[in-house]
Amino acid sequence: MSNLSIRLREKEVCQILCCSKSHLYRLHKQGRLLRRKEGYKFTYWLRKEVEAYAMGINPYAEESTSLT
Asked: What residues contact residue 54 under an 8 Å CB cut-off, 6+ apart?
């Protein structure tokens, strides 16, 4: 069993995507990666969506389509 969390904080997402925080929030604003909120402060992204985006797959498409 894996110890990896399904939720990622912004620092972890930026490391996976090799991008800055401002670019990450730009991706969110463009609708390419959805940010989730739990409670007042806790903001996270889902690991499988971030990893799919990093591989060039649109995580929100009905069918698996490329982002190009």
From this structure: 16, 17
